[in-house]
Amino acid sequence: MVAIHKWPHKTPRNRSAFRACRTTNAIIAVGAIILACIVMNLYSFSYLRNDDDEDSRTIHLDNDKDIHLKHSSEKKGSKIESLLVSAEKDTGTVSTPSKKVARIHVVTVNRHNFGSNYEREVPNCKYKEELMECIYTKANDEKADVLLYHMPNAKSTIIERQYPDQLLAGMSMEPSAYFQHQMDPKFLSKFDIRMYYNRMSEVPLLFSNAWLDKMQIFEPIKVKSTDKVPALVYINSNCAAKNGRNDIVKGVMDIGDVDVHSYGICLRNKIGEKRFHKVDVMAKYKFCIAIENSNEIDYISEKLWQALEAGCLPVYWGAPNIAEHLPVALNKIIINYADFGSPKALSDEILRINNDDKLYEEFFEWKKLDPHKDKVLPGFKWVLEVAERGHAKCELCKYAMKIFDNRTDVT
Q1: Same domain assignment for residues 381 and 337
Q2: How many angstroms separate the CA atoms of 169 and 136, rounded?
Q3: How many domains does the chain have?
Q4: Any idea what the CATH number is for the domain that residue 369 is in?
Q5: 273 is in which domain, residue-wise?
Q6: For residue 230, what are the contacts with CB-CB under 8 A and spacing of at least 6?
Q7: Cα–Cα distance between 298 and 322 in angstroms, integer?
Q8: N or C: which terminus of the chain has fewer CB atoms within 10 Å of its end residue's CB?
C-alpha cells in the first residue's frame, strides 16, 4: 500500500508546507505507476519462460556451465522438443535458438556399474543430421522419455511406465551365465528397447566399439616376434569363471611343456609392477590367454580385443559364434580352444606354432588389412558398422526418437 500525505490547511502560515506535500505526493504517484509496470513485465517474462513448463531444471555439464532446459510437459507421442534458454551474463537478456531441436531425456532407474559420470548430456549426438539433446539423469522418472534399467540388477525391480507413451529400455554388458534372468523371454519382453551385446538387441552395446573407433586392433605389432617372450601370458582376477577358465590354464601349467606367466590374482607366478597396462604386458609375449568367463553367443568381452591390439596370439574360448565377429577365418587370427578341448591338445598346438616362425607370422597378416577397402568377413562388417555409429548412449536416444516419430506418422 502506498502512503498518501494529508493536505494541510491553506493558510499563509502553512502555504510552503502545502506545496511540499503536493510535490511529494506527485513523486509517490509516479513511482507507484513505474513499480506497477515493472511488476507486470516481470510477470510476463516469467510466464513466457514457464508456459507449459512443469519440468524446468538445470543440467550440470562437465565444463561447470549450467544450461537451463525447458521440457514440454505435454507428451504427444511425437518428437520430444525443447528450447535452450541461456542468460546473457552482461545484459541479462534471454536468447533462444531460431529452431527447436529434438530432445530425449533418459533416466537411469536402478544401480549400474558405469560410474558416476554416466548421467550427463551426450555431446555431438545427431538425429537425421541435426544435433539433438540426449540427456541422462537419475531424477524425474515420471517426466522422462525413456526409463533405463541395468538388467543385471533388475531381477527384482518393478519395471513399469510412469505414463502411457514412456519407453522402457534395458542395458547390460554382463553375461547371462551370471544373470540368468537376462535370457528369460518374459523378462526381456518388458522392454521396448534392449541395449546389450546380443546381435538381436535394438541398440547393440559391444565391447569391440572401444577398439574400433580408431582401428587400434589394426595397428602394427608393437614388439617384433623375435623379441617376444616365447611363453603364454595369463592376466586374470576372476578365478571362478563359469566355463572353467582357470582349470584350463592350470592344466597347461601342470603339463609343463609351455611356460605360463601369470600376473593376475589367479595362479600368479610372476610379480610385476603394482600398476601396469595390460596391453603393454601382453605385447611382450608370443601367446596370451583371452578366455571369457562364460561361453555365450555374442558375448565377446574386452579380453579378446586387448589381445588383438597387443599383438600376442590369443588363446580364445567363449562365444560359440566368435567367427561372426572377426575380420578373417579363425585359424588365421586366434587359437580357438573349442577346436582342441583339453589342456594337453592346447599345449601341443602352442608348441607347434611356436616352433614355426613362418606359421606364427601368418596369424598377424590380417593386421595389414584396411577393413574399409579390403575384403573382410560379413560378420565383422556389421561389428565395424556398429562401432562407427558412435556412442551407444546416443544410439539409444536416436532409437527412442525414431519410435516417437513413427508413432506420429501412424497417427
Answers
A1: yes
A2: 13
A3: 2
A4: 3.40.50.11660
A5: 214-387
A6: 259, 286, 354
A7: 7
A8: N
- DSSP 8-state class, residue 265: S
H or E element, residue 393: helix 392-410
Residues 281 and 361 reside in one and the same domain: yes
CA–CA separation, 124 and 260 (whole Å): 45
Helical ranges in 322-391 per DSSP H: 343-354, 357-362, 378-389
Task: Show the beta-strand stretches assigned E in 119-268.
Answer: 126-127, 130-131, 133-137, 146-150, 167-172, 193-196, 229-234, 260-262
Beta-strand relationship, 260-262 and 229-234: parallel
Q: Which domain-ending residue is among 207, 226, 241?
A: 207
- Shared domain for 376 and 234, answered yes or no, is yes
Question: Are 228 and 310 in a shared domain?
Answer: yes
Residue 84 pairs in a beta bridge with 69
Shared-domain flag, residues 368 and 242: yes
Rounded CA gap, 228 and 312, in Å? 9
- H or E element: which one contains 32? helix 15-50
List per-residue pLDDT tens for the chain, 411 residues long. Answer: 444 444 444 444 444 444 544 555 555 555 555 554 444 443 333 332 333 333 322 222 233 323 222 223 333 332 222 212 222 223 233 333 434 479 999 999 998 888 888 999 999 999 999 999 999 999 877 789 999 999 999 999 999 999 999 999 999 999 999 999 999 999 999 999 999 999 999 999 999 999 998 899 999 998 999 999 999 999 999 999 999 999 999 999 999 999 999 999 999 999 866 678 999 999 999 999 999 999 999 999 999 999 999 999 999 999 999 999 999 999 999 999 999 999 999 999 999 999 999 999 999 999 999 999 999 999 999 999 999 998 899 999 999 999 999 987 765
